[in-house]
Amino acid sequence: MWHLITAPILLPMLTALLIMLPPIHYSPVRRRWLSIISSAIQLVLVATLLLKVQQDGAVHYAVGNWQAPFGIILVADTLSMVMVCLTSFLAFGAICYGSAGDDEKGSFFHPLFQFQVMGINGAFLTGDLFNMFVFFEVLLIASYALLIHAGGKNKTKAALHYVILNLTGSAIFLFALAVLYGTLGTLNIVDMAAKVALLPAADVMLVKSGGLMLIIVFALKAAVLPLQFWLPATYSSASAPVAALFAVMTKIGVYALLRVYTTIFGAEAGALSGMAGSWLLPVGLATIVLGSIGVIASNDFRKLVANLVLVSVGTLVSLVALQTELTAAAAIYYTVHSTLVAAALFLIADLIANQRGKAGDRLVSGRRVSQPVLLGIMFMVGAMTVAGLPPFSGFIGKLMLLQAVAEPSSKLLLWSIVLVCSLLVIVGLSRAGSTLFWRVSGSDAGEGKAAPLQVFAVCWLLIASPLLVIFAGPFTELSQHAAAQLYPSGANAVSRHALAPELEVVP
Amino acid sequence: METLFASCIGFLTFCGVFLMLRGRTFPVMLGLTMLSYAVNLFIFASGRLTLRGAVVLGTTEHYADPLPQALVLTAIVIGFAMTAFLVILAIRARADLGNDHVDGKLPDADGMKRESR
Asked: How many CA atoms lie within 13 A of A399 on its CB side?
């Protein structure tokens, strides 16, 4: 049964290979259906796995039956399964949207998409830092190719920056891993945690420099302040389904920060415990501010949504920096909410741009959209969710994160910045909405209607927002459960060692 | 041996970073290649430098750490693929944007003069 843990990695890989075989590759219809069906199967599979993991506790799966510190292990705990579920849910929506026509604008859309899903799932599931690097590269090389899907000047320019930055990031990642391996002698995350606790004083600075280099890498992936300049250009020039999938890519950086700086450099790490917090809190808060200024300043809607991604990343990184169980739970809930709504907004931006003729998604007066009611309702739900207004999931997400902050000094900072920036986001979104829908020049409506599959995809992503509110009880329980596994105390700590008895430390 | 090895990595990193900060795609690409050479040597050194150490059990008294060698192999393969992709992308950018500057447009006249000097 537990071999199923490998399914989120193997299924997209095999699907991608199948799609490239001649009988399927030469028929667009077959390519689409295989891709859609495979991601639906994947979604059902990972949802079952999530329920099982929540009941039975975390599972460590030794790949090829090579035992833990020597072989690579996959770890399916609640946090990683929640992230895998999120990816599958998002990928299903994005593939449906892409299948309405965007996939034919370039070649190999579906195989690349599946390879990227494979990389993302792998990065969430792995329990080994070097393996995480490998999966990062898998998802990156697929994302490079997907970014220039459908071609064009802007895409090439954005891709060049994106590729060079990420190659530099990979080099720093490898430097950090080599430093950590040279001092700790292992790259298994649980084993590293045990070794860090027993570190001789002479090696502390070396491990610290390795750990801080890892922050740079993950901050680049997550797009935190000094390293975020690539994000708005990249996300706004990618084609819509690709941008929707990219919404989860920044969250991989946040996930890695959460994983590494609670498990390896967590409370038990002695001299090195909590070394990330003091760096991440100020840059996280600054990212929120910069993102919301970007929201106000954007002059096209896609850039605006890309800046909304920055705001959510800043919020998540500040929550991770506070390093308590409550903030981690809030961060997990907020990740699910913000990823889905950002993806939905990217798709809505594309629908609006298609119907406004030459004006596209620029925030200037243009032709009337041909389906004002449908798009207006979608925009409204998306905007209210992302701004955190009451009936939708953003409200509960914000409420959880504001309540989770306990320390008075950080409470003052986070509350004021998050609330003021929410106001800026509301202002930016209402300006964008009124321009897109109400500032109309001429009386004739634009051409083109949204395909049924596109409408379905957007609704699929948007429906998550009311669902996250209606089932807020189980969802918060789930995120608290995931956070409790990250911060083992008492019974949980015992169970972690019981699960991985082979990881006993040999001093 | 350690000094020679360390200064070799340091020099490669220095050249790599210097070239990466240049304005055109070709030097940047060379810089990334240099940096990945430095990274590969650095990973290799994380298993400690030993002479005449074997990784196969039962062949010698003196063993080398096999893991960094495996890691280096993975890193080389990935780095090679990424560089190949970047070369193609740079050529595509040259065709699409009409120049080989990383920002897609040549700096203004003043900048050009300063660069040629």
From this structure: 12
Using a CB-CB cut-off of 8 Å, the residues of chain A touching B46 are: 178-179, 181-182
What pLDDT is attached to residue A377?
94
CB contact under 8 A, B89 and A161: no
Interface test with B, best of A133, A170, A186, A191 (most B CBs within 10 A): A170
Residue A489 has pLDDT above 90, yes or no: no
Confidence band of A503 (pLDDT split at 50, 70, 90): very low
- Compute φ and ψ for A73, nearest 5 degrees: -115, 150
The tokens for B9 are 């990595």
pLDDT band at A307 (very low <50, low <70, confident <90, very high): very high
Residues spanned by the domain of B7: 2-116
Name the domain count of chain B.
1
- Tell if the CB–CB gap between B39 and A171 is shorter than 8 Å: yes
Residues 6+ apart with CB under 8 A from A476: A329, A333, A396, A400
Closest-CA residue in chain A for B83? A167
CA nearest A169: which of A224, A125, A114, A208?
A224
What is the per-residue pLDDT across A232-276, written as a single tens digit (0 to 9) for each?
999 999 999 999 999 999 999 999 999 999 888 887 777 788 788
**How far is A465 from chain B, CA to nearest CA, in Å?**
38
Contacts of B35 in chain A (CB under 8 A): 168, 171
For A210, half-sphere exposure in the C-beta direction (CA atoms, 13 angstrom radius) is 27
Q: Residues B35-63: pLDDT tens digits?
A: 999 999 999 899 888 888 777 777 777 88
Distance CA A153, CA A220 (A): 24
Whichever domain contains B43, its CATH number is: 1.10.287
The full length of chain B comes to: 117
Q: B74 at the A interface (CB within 8 A)?
A: yes
ipTM for the assembly:
0.91
pLDDT value at position A495? Answer: 43
Between A and B, how many residue pairs show a Cβ–Cβ distance under 8 A?
A: 88
Q: How many CA atoms lie within 13 A of A426 on its CB side?
A: 13
Kindly state whether B73 is in contact with chain A, defined as any CB-CB distance less than 8 angstroms: no
- 3-class state of residue A439 by DSSP: coil
Paired tokens of A263: 């498990």
Which among A134, A144, A160 is the nearest to B25, CB-wise? Answer: A160
Residue A504, pLDDT score: 41
